[in-house]
Amino acid sequence: MFDNEHNGSVSGATPTADAVLALGIDVGSTNTKVALVAIDDTVRELDVRSVATPADADGVGDAVRGLVDTLTAGRSVAAIGIASMAETGVALDASNVPLTPLVRWDGARGAADAAALLDRFGPELFARTGVPPGPKTPLATWAWLRRTQPTTFGAMRRWVGVADLVALALTGEHVTDHTLAGRTGAYRLPEGTTPSGWDDELLDAVGMHAGMLPAVGASAVTTRGVPVVVAGHDHSVGAWAAGLRAPGSVADSVGTAEAVLRMLHHPADRAAVAATGMSIVRSIRDDAEVLLAGHSAAGALLRQWCAEEGVPEHRAFADLPDGPVEVAVLPYPRGRQTPAPDPHARLVWVDAAGSDRRTRARALLDGLALHARWMYDAQTALAGDGHPERIAVLGGPARNPEFAAIKAAVSPAPLALVTAREPVATGAAMIAVERTLGHTAPVLPARPVAPAAGDYSAAIAGFPTLARIAGISTTPEGAR
Description:
By secondary structure, this protein is of the alpha+beta class. Helices cover 35% and strands 21% of the residues. InterPro entries: ATPase_NBD, Carb_kinase_FGGY, FGGY_C, FGGY_Carb_Kinase, FGGY_N.
């Protein structure tokens, strides 16, 4: 329901004789997906497989190799692309033996270390990297690891992100992509005549150096000679596949977490973006800056609520009342990243007493959609441009008809739902073909989403104020 958990061939998908076959891998926060894709003037998913994402490095490597072997049995593929969640990795020793389980982005560690880095480098930290200096960044994680596990840190010779780990398992090479390197908090944005690259001063501050990190932009090959490309950050890869390829385009990627991405016409004002808690990242083709507004509780919050209510996910959000309902939800179980950062913001139900489950379900979807609209509006103000012709939306939660219709109702532009079963894995295959063969894949197909009934204008206007007030009222005493 909230992640695309499909296994098996895609009905009616038959490649043409001229189609290029490629494999795409997406190691997500919840599930790991692999898609066999045929690319010519269209993109077709021929087969998709998924498993729950393991918690350890060996498990990830074994799971991916098993899925790859299944999908390539009796077939030859031209390239393999790998996407993954960002800010997640593993420490390796000199023999590439894992020293840690996956150190995940959602592990709630390193806050003190992030604060110390911010104290030392100040606004320059964001200006250099485009990444808010929070506890989930690998830069803070490395400082935390050095402080809390000095023996492990001392034995570490390499750090690899999750997509890099899969590339290592398939090829034996340490390679990554600029969109994943850019999420570490230690990779410089290009500025003036200074190119992008690992920031030696930031790395030295946490006891690291560039030789411990993968080569950015390099490709590798399997033992069978198949090119392997780290395609990038899962949200960026899916957004590119969905059409985030020109300045002014916007995509909304909804998975365990949600990200709204907007490609810019010109470089962003670093200080203005930093104040919102958003990130500045580079586009998949590294030809423009992109604003990324993230919300850590999207599919994860929906899944959590279903478990608490004791309702199966496939039933929880069907046959809901029209909205907006009188109940309001501020969807922040672990703080708010953007556009008004507040680590103390919490999940708040407003006027929920006496409401029934269906009303609460509607309110939860409304709250998530309204927060995404708030992120979009803040991006629009930063970008200084108008609305796009359409906003592409992709990901498992967005495939729920009720949620998609609500998102369309609060959207300032027509919403187009990407119809691919695994848009990130498929996008990774598309990027691999483009980077290795020079074949530019078309944008993934999408269908228009009809808006839900109801007038959301007042809810849209009032949500930012309500979110800020409730955040203040739920702040622990002495925290401000």
